[in-house]
Amino acid sequence: MSAEIVVQVRELSHTYLAGTPMETVALRSADLTLRAGEIGALIGENGAGKSTLLHYLNALLRPDAPGKVVVFGQDTADATLDLALLRQKVGLVFQYPQQQLIERYAGDDVAYGPRQLGLAGEALRERVRWAMEVVGLPFEAFVDRQALLLSGGETRRLALAGVLAMQPQLLVLDEATTGLDPQGKREIHALLRRLREEQGLTLLLVSNDMEEVASLADRVTVLHDGRTAIEGDTRAVFAERDLLHAHGLACPAAVEIVHALREGGMAVALGALTPDEAEEAIWQALADPTRGGRP
Fold first, then answer.
1. Which of 22, 64, 138, 239 has the highest CB neighbour number within 10 Å of its CB?
2. Angle at CA 200, nearest 5°, toward 195 and 202?
3. In which residue ranges of the chain is pLDDT below 50?
């Protein structure tokens, strides 16, 4: 049986400054589905509507008819919706994490959310310790550090710790690794996998890094001009290489390399997403005694 659907977006539209000379349409009948335990990815050109869609997932924006957003079984347009409970379940980490910091000291910043929920004393301290340790910021070393003096990677981890301290069920990250060096990206990727595997979180990533998407995501939704152009499992979406190119998107390097080799006459099988898979496909093509690597 398929896992429970935790996010269902259907025919969602959004216009900023409607009825004014500055009117801008951000979404035009967008769809998105995410199931419990999945890592989903939302990709598209700049201006495709990705960040706008994210703001609907914890009801920072709320839909008008006919658009519909259902999160954990709750219609976010329902006037009786418990917004505090929804926003506890759906943790949103913004693209620029320094804008998410509230308190002067790292420990106080992580404590801010749980404190609003009524947590105090030793229970609060242990929640902060847990969240900081989970993201790789040792509690004793970082609790009294000034938040704005942390490095870029540490700031991202701190913002993430502040969200995790609320113990969400869905974690939404907007460009989680922008500006990080390769080692920093690998560390964040490993952390996200652990959060899914050890904490049971469902994750949704917005990313312009196709290698990141191929490495992490189970499911991909492609937005183009505010509409859902493609939606499906990651391998199937990146198989639509020509359509992705038409929407201004590159594919992971492994996909592009395999296609280039085929266009050059090598009978390498399609479907590789990662460098290791591409290498295996190339060796198999070269070892084929019937074709000698040629079509």
1. 239
2. 80
3. 1, 292-295
Q: Are strands 24-35 and 74-75 parallel, antiparallel or unpaired?
A: unpaired
Provide the 8-state DSSP code for 288: -
5-251 fold? Rossmann fold (3.40.50)
CA angle 236, 174, 252 (to 5 degrees): 35
Q: 55 vs 3, 136, 244, 258, 274, CA distance in Å? A: 24, 27, 25, 37, 31
Number of H helices, E strands in the chain: 12, 10
- Residue 198: name the closest of 128, 154, 134, 139 by CA: 134
Which residue, chain included where needed, has tokens 């939404």? 172
- Contact criterion met (CB below 8 Å) for 177 and 212: yes
Q: Which two tokens stand for residue 285?
A: 């093509």
> What residues does each domain of the chain span?
5-251, 252-295
- pLDDT tens for 135-163 read 999 999 999 999 999 998 899 999 999 99
Count the neighbouring beta carbons within 10 Å of the beta carbon of residue 99: 8
Tokens of 72: 């954990």
Q: Residue 278, SS3?
A: helix
pTM of the model: 0.90
Q: Which residues pair with 174 in a beta bridge?
A: 206
Q: What's the pLDDT score for residue 1?
A: 44
Give the whole-number percent of the chain exceeding pLDDT 70. 97
Structural contact between residues 93 and 174, judged by C-beta atoms closer than 8 angstroms: yes
In DSSP terms, 184 is beta-bridged to: none
